[in-house]
């Protein structure tokens, strides 16, 4: 308090000295004001240059309005300093001094007392110099971000053009494929006609054979009827001599009355045609389906490989310690539009809780999971390296990575992050702690895990899970060709399960 009083006395003497030098008090408004001058906050009619700023009142005063602070003992505890711009924003809360310096090490504005005490030995600069340096860095960063945004915009344009090209190319290929299948259908139709012609030939031949035999039998029947009529005539002869003579004559020219054995073709061999056509059809169908499936799948697999799989390995060293992994930390949050109705999002969308049987009245959304109690993050992971840590609580808490294209509405196991070939996850159930991929579970010999680390390396095409509850150790690692960006996804199968995305740093 004595120091403050003495400061005010010195300010009073200085002011009186200035008054004594000028025999007549000057009009402050006569002074030429410069852009950098601080104006008096108490002058209402015309602006005047401030002589001092009060750190207690947070107001600047000209010579005339400063007098109460210099002469009235009620203001003796007020701190007067040289005029300051934005005085209300530049006062140290601890020392009540202007924030004139900037600590480059801690990144905060400090006063002279702070610089000499709490920040002693730190690299500091005046706020003006610090601003100049930071603005230069910001400008450079702004240019980098602008270039990245421009590159992203161009990439999006290329992707859109590529999408149109994909659609048109697929349509062209579909036309060719339709032509080839039409050829196949034509060949099948020709084979059908050929088989029908063979059967028609069989039918014609059999019918002609039957027709010829029938004509012969009809001819023989006519001859036999004539013979029968002549025999009836002989039996009506009254004279024994005439009967015997006519019989002797008839017997000499009597034809053979025996009929030939009649061959009735039942065409039992037609079943052979059925067997041959059935076997050949089955063989061709199997060949067509297997040939198309195998060859098309080979092309599809070679065409859908990740572009990173053929690129060179990352020149960066493989992370080993937790500090190494933290360099690739990503801060993610759950997307409320994907959250299942039995899940609740809390703590700035970083914590997910299963509230079964209580449902939440979320609006309908095409991205929302309807059957599996899952939620997906808003941001994706793509290219490079990424590290995320999550805390798990309860039997049924799972966390992993999947594609955005995962089915949100289906009840099949492929709609869950544990049941398809484009998801990788770890979690706990009543039997222990497991890793899952494509419906295959791998038991992990661990207990009491509460926090896991997820590490994705697109260069190495790998997903790794770590136990970070205690000393960091690898739980399981998968290798895959990623064809889409990855999203961190949580699956909470039971009540009170919790998954939290934590700030690893």
UniProtKB/TrEMBL annotation:
Keyword Ribosomal protein: no
Keyword presence, Protease: no
Cellular component GO terms, alphabetical: cytoplasm
Molecular function as annotated in GO: zinc ion binding
Occurrences of domain B30.2/SPRY (ranges): 312-505
Domain of life where this protein originates: Eukaryota
A Pfam family this chain is assigned to: TRIM_CC
Alphabetized UniProt keyword annotations: Metal-binding, Zinc, Zinc-finger
Region Disordered, residue ranges: 1-29
Name by which UniProt lists this protein: B30.2/SPRY domain-containing protein
Source organism of this protein record: Dicentrarchus labrax
């Amino acid at each position: 308090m004595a120091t403050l009083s003495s400061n005010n006395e010195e300010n009073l003497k200085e002011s009186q000295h200035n008054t004594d030098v000028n025999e007549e008090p000057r009009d402050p408004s006569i002074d030429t004001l410069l852009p950098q001058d601080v104006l008096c906050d108490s002058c209402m009619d015309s602006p005047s240059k401030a002589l001092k700023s009060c750190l207690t009142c947070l107001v600047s005063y000209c010579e005339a309005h400063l007098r109460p602070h210099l002469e009235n003992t009620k203001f003796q505890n007020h701190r007067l300093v040289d005029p300051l711009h934005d005085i209300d924003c530049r006062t140290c809360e601890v020392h009540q001094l202007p924030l004139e310096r900037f600590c480059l090490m801690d990144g905060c504005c400090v006063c002279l007392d702070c610089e000499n005490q709490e920040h002693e030995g730190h690299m500091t600069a005046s706020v003006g110099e610090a601003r100049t340096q930071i603005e230069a860095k910001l400008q450079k960063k702004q240019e980098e971000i602008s270039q990245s945004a421009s590159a992203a915009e161009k990439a999006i344009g290329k992707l859109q053009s590529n999408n149109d090209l994909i659609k048109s190319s697929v349509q062209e290929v579909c036309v060719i494929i339709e032509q080839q299948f039409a050829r196949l259908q034509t060949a099948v139709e020709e084979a059908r006609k050929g088989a029908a012609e063979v059967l028609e030939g069989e039918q014609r031949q059999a019918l002609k054979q039957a027709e010829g035999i029938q004509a012969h039998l009809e001819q023989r029947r006519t001859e036999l009827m004539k013979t029968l009529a002549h025999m009836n005539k002989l039996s009506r002869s009254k004279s024994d001599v005439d009967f015997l003579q006519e019989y002797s004559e008839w017997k000499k020219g009597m034809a053979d009355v025996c009929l030939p054995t009649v061959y009735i073709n039942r065409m039992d061999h037609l079943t052979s045609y059925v067997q041959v056509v059935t076997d050949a059809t089955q063989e061709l169908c199997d060949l067509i389906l297997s040939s198309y499936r195998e060859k098309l799948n080979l092309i599809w697999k070679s065409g859908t490989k990740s572009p990173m799989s053929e690129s060179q390995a990352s020149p960066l060293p493989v992370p080993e310690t937790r500090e190494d992994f933290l360099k690739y930390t990503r801060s993610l949050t759950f997307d409320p539009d994907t959250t299942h109705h039995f899940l609740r999002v809390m703590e700035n969308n970083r914590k997910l809780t299963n509230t079964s049987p209580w449902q939440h009245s979320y609006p309908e959304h095409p991205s929302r999971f309807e059957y599996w109690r899952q939620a997906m993050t808003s941001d994706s992971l793509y290219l490079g390296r990424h590290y995320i840590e999550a805390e798990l609580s309860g039997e049924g808490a799972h966390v992993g990575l999947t594609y955005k294209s995962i089915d949100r509405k289906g009840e099949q196991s492929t709609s869950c992050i544990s049941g398809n070939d484009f998801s990788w996850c770890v979690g706990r159930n009543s039997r222990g702690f497991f890793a899952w991929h494509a419906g295959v579970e791998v038991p992990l010999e661990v207990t009491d895990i509460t926090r896991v680390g997820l590490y994705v390396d697109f260069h190495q095409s790998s997903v790794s899970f770590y136990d970070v509850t205690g000393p960091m150790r690898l739980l399981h690692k998968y290798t895959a060709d990623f064809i889409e960006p990855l999203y961190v996804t949580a699956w909470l199968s039971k009540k009170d399960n919790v998954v939290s995305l934590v700030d690893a740093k």
